[in-house]
Each structure stands twice: as structure tokens, then as C-alpha cells.
Amino acid sequence: MTATTDFPEYTQDARAQAEQELFTLLRIPSVSADPARRADMRRAAEYLQTKLASLGFTARVDDTPGHPVVYAERLQAQGKPTVLIYGHYDVQPEAPLEKWETPPFEPTVRDGRIYARGATDDKGQAYAHVRGAELLLTQGELPVNVKFLLEGEEEVGSPNLEPYIRAHVDELRADTIVISDGSRFAPDVPTVTYGLRGLSYVEVHVTGANRDLHSGSYGGAAPNPINALAQIISSLKDEQGRVTIPGFYDGVDELTPAEREMWAGLPHDDASFAASIGATALPGEAGFSTLERLWARPTLDVNGIWGGYQGEGSKTVIASTAGAKISMRLVPGQDPERITRLIQAYLPTIAPEGAQVVVKDLHGGQPVLIDLDNPYVQAAGRALAAVHGKAPVYTRGGGSIPIVAAFRELLHAPVVLVDFGLNEDAPHSPNESFALSDYHDGVLTSAHLLREISGATS
Amino acid sequence: MTATTDFPEYTQDARAQAEQELFTLLRIPSVSADPARRADMRRAAEYLQTKLASLGFTARVDDTPGHPVVYAERLQAQGKPTVLIYGHYDVQPEAPLEKWETPPFEPTVRDGRIYARGATDDKGQAYAHVRGAELLLTQGELPVNVKFLLEGEEEVGSPNLEPYIRAHVDELRADTIVISDGSRFAPDVPTVTYGLRGLSYVEVHVTGANRDLHSGSYGGAAPNPINALAQIISSLKDEQGRVTIPGFYDGVDELTPAEREMWAGLPHDDASFAASIGATALPGEAGFSTLERLWARPTLDVNGIWGGYQGEGSKTVIASTAGAKISMRLVPGQDPERITRLIQAYLPTIAPEGAQVVVKDLHGGQPVLIDLDNPYVQAAGRALAAVHGKAPVYTRGGGSIPIVAAFRELLHAPVVLVDFGLNEDAPHSPNESFALSDYHDGVLTSAHLLREISGATS
């Protein structure tokens, strides 16, 4: 349910307009990983700058060595806190394209959901804050000072954002940083997220012979890099589902009994969770519940693998090379750079004879844990309660927002993670979507949150 | 060195013409695995038919449910043996195209070698027999009755050739069957091959969740089909390099002490063999020499693998599916259909929880062992000695010619395997090639062989 009583200005017309503006943004194929989409990246940035300028923000598009950053500010609330709203306008690659029911960059509404790449991650959630500010402006001046920082490289590890923040520390200074770039716990469960996992992402290349070989003439004597890669990957976890890289678990923060109890009380059951992804089992580290494994335990997954003949029919070849993309989700107590060094050092030591292994660092991100007692997190709780008519739950997220750690380190401000999306939105998958009701609730939550923050500290 | 004394008609002009005719055939991209190349397949078949007809053969192109068969015969040698020459005009896919120094279907001569897909496998070796017959015809009538059977589906497992042979048994009847579709032992070592490995080739599909998932939101609980596939593959061999599929080695013919001794005497050393393929090791089944592992021991290789994100940069996804092509080389005593059933039954039993496994049979071929004492194998030995000025060695081949078993079974005639190529020709690889000298020696060997067979039994 949606409490619009405080914001009668959010009319059906306003909602329709908010939807059309988001659709326009979703039609721009701003895939940061794809060098061919550079111009689209800039178009998306300029679209956001133009919109924010129209709301009376001082807005600009700043170049970086990669994709541009959109920065905007409206600082008219004398003596009130300053809120920095972070989001990203880049999206994941659309592959595999053939699995999309409607084109990824042609937003389509079905059963009350917007289907498009970036609908929930993060264009829809970020734009909800833009419309939230717009909604407040219909009632007069903003109750707090607001800064928007919208980047274009979140899906490739934000390589240029930290330098950008360093170069603009004074300008970006804020009392709190608000981010909506994840999923709340469940459809009817408003959620404040107080932890995120970190990430170490590498690419592995294995080489055998110096050329592809006939598997008949050489099978039985030639090194096979695909078999070798499979052996390496399979040896990275033991039978308990624990990662075998020496030192991997050193320093991992253990869950507190209070957290385990709080999460055990959440409305979750493995059967329906498994059913929601069409899985017949939920394999993982022994000794931890599913939520504990998702939110507070590190893990390792192969995100992609390739080698040899992938075409039609059968080719009797022993490939010269094979490769894989491997990522590890990290938890508080683990340092991404250290973990990346560990796997880079370890893989060559377990390579079968005849296999040459190179491990390339693609990117990493720090895990995050947020103090539940800070006033801004409390304000988020009240904002969600006002919109949903019930108190939110406090959970962690399994994903990573690497830049959150940089915000904390460089801006020394508490981060508030209030997510409008759902896992069922299928971010990063074909047919990514975002419920229209979640989008509009996001707009209202954003408006309530800024108002609550204003009151919280006045 | 090449003994042309018996065939002064094989002049420089004749050689140049023999090369140009082969180049024309090599320019036709007759990739049997590629549905888009159907018309090219027919063009290649018609080119061979036209050539053989011009030599006075009764030649035709016979349709099959797949690609056509070229059949030609010249039966003017009253009371003389009939020789059936088998070859194939289809070639392996050219992928990976970017690794070719010159276009795969634009034959280019460098350092005395013809570079093109199919140069050695099998257009070059098959066409050497066509020119061998032509060479004999310059001296008068052929000394034996000659039949050519040139198929277009060898590289996809000859699915339609056995039915074709059954339908034409009387027409194809012969005293011996000559095949040149492999590699001799070494550049200066004329070789008669008396054994071939069989093949079982399957495609494995592993499914986890019903859609791609965000590795942050689901990593630690969702089944990962790539990790599962790696685990399945790595468990298919033990630390001794032995295949672990239950029953895999049942009935395998052990090597005789005489064979082990004969092969131990061949000019081979592991170091230079490894160097020839740029490998740092020659991993394989413990307890057997490299040649024994290549010729007389079964093995298993992954020929291709795929799953998840293979593009630029990093995508944090847990794929819904992954797949691999797996082939097993078989030896006398192993039945391909039985081995395929074994792996189809075994893989699902070793799948990690949450992984659904389907194993698809792509194709298979029977292993072959030939009696060294039959007069046609002896004739091949004399023909090679005449051309190379030295006695040949007797080896087995690691590859498979599935149809050889069918010939033996349906035509009840001994098969003679006399190979003109070399492993260094890189069949199935980018930059496949065939030495011009090997091509011309092949033409002369073919002519000598037909003459020797005529004498051998007159």
C-alpha cells in the first residue's frame, strides 16, 4: 500500500510523467562494459543533467578517463543537513539477447512491471530520487541540501569514481549518503540494508600446447587446458562448500548471535526461495542458513567459461587455450586486494602439469557494515514506515557497491542503503524488470526520507 | 627423396597441374558441420565427379540424406584385383578464423607447404590418388580395377555412409580398400598404419537455476552450473590419468610385448615431441609410453566448453546453463555405443546437488586393428619403399576413421592405410598445411601401390 496522504501532489498525471521520463532513460543502451556504447553513455548522462537542471539544480556532466559523472546540487536549506544521493546510469550487458521476451532497451509494461535492462539496476531506483526531489519541490524548497552523484561505471567496478571523489572532496561533502541500488527483503517487507559484501573478480587464462591439436593424433599425451581449467576450478571448494584458497577465511567477521536470531525470524523458507529461481537445491557452505550464506559468508562463483569448439556438431580438437571469469564475494574482515593476491598466487600452484596459468585482476570492492544506530538510518526507517504503513526489517545484502567503502573513507559520512527493488526484478538477467508500484513507492520514500532527515537533526 | 624413375611422365608440368587442380578444390569451403555450406559441399562433389569422368571413369554424384557421395569406377583390368579408394572431400570448421595467417579457403604456398583447410585432411591426400590413377593412365590402362568412394560427411561422423554402402554393396565390392586420411610417423619415415582408435563423442548440458542470476544476490546459495560442470569433468580422470567411468576399460586389448618392442625402437623422444607442439609436459595415463598412450590406450578430452559471460570486462552473473563437448578415443576391445551409454549413465550420478545433467550422443566410431600379413598391406610396404628408397615402419594411428570398421564388416575386404600426411600438417587446426613434396610422393605412391597390387596377386 502507498501512503500518498502527505503528498497529494503525486497525482496520476505526475506518476504517468515520472514513468515516461524513466522510459526515455531506459531506451538509451548505456552498457558501460561495451566500448561501442560510448556515445550512448554520454547521452544518458546528459539526459540526467538536463532533467536536474530543469529542477533548479546546478548540474553538470564531468568527464573522467572512462564514462562521465553527472553531478548536481541544490543547496538552499540553510542550517539543514546535506544529503548526497548516489546512483548509476550504466547498466549490465544485455547478453544473452535471445532470452529477452521484449527488447532490453525498449521498456515494456506487462502486469504492472517495467521490463528493460536497467529498470531496477539502477536507472529506476536512481531516477526515483530525482522524482522524489521534484515532488518535494512542488511543496516549496527542499527541506535539506541535496547533491546528486550519478556515475556511469558501477557495472565495471567504478574504476574512475574514487579518483573523482578525491578530486571533489569539498564539493561532495555531506552529512549522509543515500543509495538505492539493491533489493529489499521481500515484496511486502520494507527494508533497510546495513551491510554489503565485497568483491574480488579475476580472469583466468590456461594455455596448453602452442596451437589447437587433433584430439585423435594427440589425445592421451597433449596437455588439455580445458580439462586443466576444470580441475583447477573444482579444487577451489571442498566438500563442505568452503573455499580452499589458503588464508581465504582469515579475519572474517563472524555473525553475532543477535544477527543470526534477527535473520532467523525473517519470513524466509528455502523451498519457496529455491522455487523462485527454479532450482532443485540451494548448495553452499555447510553450517550456515541460506540467508547467512548470502549476506554474511564469503563465496566463490565462476561467472563465465570458454575454450575449444562451441559451434554446431562435433569438432575433434584439443584447444590451445581456455579461460574463465571467477568472482569471490567477500565479507567484513576480508580485503579485496589481499584476496585477489591470494588467488593469483594459488592457482598456478594447483595447475596440472603442462598447463600454464595466468590470473588477471579485473576488479574488486570493499565489504561494508553500517551502524544501525545512526540518525540517518533511523530516518530511513521512519520514511519506509510512512510509505508502507509498517516498520522495516534490517538486513544485509549479498551484492557489492564497491564505492560505498570509498564514500565512508573519503567523505566520513554514514551511508544509508534504502532499496526499492527486489531480487525477482532479475537484475543482471534477461527480462530485468521493476514494478511500477515499487518505482512510485521509491519516489515517495525518497521525499519522505529527505523530510525525515531534515527533522531528525533540526 | 622421390623415385620418379618408374614414372618419367610425372613431369614438372604434370606436378604444376596437379597442384592447381588441388588448389581449386581447396578454395571450396566444404565444411560439412556448417548448414550454411550445403551448396559448397555439392560444388566440391561435382568438381571431383567432373575430374574423374575426364579420366574415363564412370562417375556420378549420389544424394544422401546429408551431403552427397562421389562414386566413380574404371573396371578395365580383366582378371585383376579391384581396389576401392576411399577419401572425403568435407573439411573441419575453420574456427578460430583469427588464428589463420592466410585465409583458410585461399590456398597459399609458403616454404614448400600448401596452407589451407583440408590441405592434408583429406582433400590433398584423396586427390593424390586421383592424380595417381591419372599418372598410370599416361602409361596405358590401369593395372587393376579402380573404384573411388569420396564422401562429404567424414568430419561429422559419416552418418549416411554406412547406409550408402549397404545400399551399394555389390557395386562397391572390392578385394581391398585403400585409405589415405592420416599422418605417417615422421617426415623421413614412410609408414603403414595397421590400427586406429575408435571414438565416442558426446555433448553435456548442465542446468542450475531457471535464469541467469546476480552473483551478489544469489552467490552462496544458488547452484552454479559452470562450477558443477568443472567438478564433473575433473572427476572423470584419477590421479593416474585413468578414466574413472565405471567399466570404461572392460575388454581393452592389451599391447603385445612385440608391439611395445617395435614402437620402443621407433625414432621418438618425448622432449622433441613436446617441443613440436610447444608443450611443457606430456600428461597422460601412468605406466605407458607416449606412443602407447597415443595409439593403443583409450583417453578422454574435453573438446569445447562454454557458459556464462565470455565478453569484455566483468559481469557478476551466475549462469543458468553451461555445456561441454567431450570425446573419448577408444581402442580394440571397446565398443563406442557401449562407452557412450556408460558416460550417459554415469555423469548424472556425479552431478553436484542442484545441477541437472543431460548427455547427448553426437557420434562414435569403431576402433580398428589390421592383419599385417595380408598381401595388400605388403604391397603398400613395397610401394612406399619404391618411392622413399627405404622400408616403411608399421604403426597405429591415434585418430579415428569410423567408416573403416563398416568397410570391413560390409565389404569383407582388408583395409590398407597408407598415409601421406604428417601431424605437423596441423589437421583440424588453424593454418592446416600439406607439404608439396608429400603431395607428389602421394601421387607416386598411389601409382606404385596399384601396380604392386596388380603384381601381388597376378
Folded structure, characterized:
The structure is a homodimer of 458-residue chains. The first copy, chain A, is of the alpha+beta class. The first copy, chain A, has two domains: 12-196 and 367-454, Zn peptidases (Aminopeptidase, 3-Layer(aba) Sandwich); 198-252 and 298-365, Alpha-Beta Plaits (2-Layer Sandwich). Helices cover 32% and strands 22% of the residues of chain A. Chain A is built from 14 helices and 18 strands. Chain A has helices at residues 12-26, 38-54, 123-137, 161-167, 169-172, 215-218, 225-234, 257-264, 270-276, 290-295, 336-346, 375-388, 403-411, 436-456, and strands at residues 58-62, 69-74, 82-88, 108-110, 113-115, 145-151, 176-179, 191-196, 198-207, 213-214, 299-308, 317-318, 321-330, 356-365, 368-369, 393-397, 415-418, 433-435. In chain A, strands 1, 2, 3, 6, 7, 8, 15, 16 and 17 form a nine-stranded mixed β-sheet that branches. In chain A, strands 11-13-9-14 form a four-stranded antiparallel β-sheet. Chain A has a three-stranded antiparallel β-sheet with strand order 4-5-18. In chain A, helix 3 packs across helix 14. The longest helix of chain A is centred in the C-terminal third of the chain and has 21 residues, at 436-456. The first copy, chain A, is globular, with a radius of gyration of 23 Å. The two termini of chain A are 29 Å apart. At the A-B interface, strand 9, strand 10, helix 6, helix 7 and helix 10 of A face strand 9, strand 10, helix 6, helix 7 and helix 10 of B. Strand 11 (299-308) of chain A pairs antiparallel with strand 11 of chain B, so a sheet runs across the interface. Chains A, B: Keywords: Hydrolase, Metal-binding, Protease. Chains A, B: It comes from Deinococcus aquiradiocola. Chains A, B: This is Peptidase M20 dimerisation domain-containing protein.
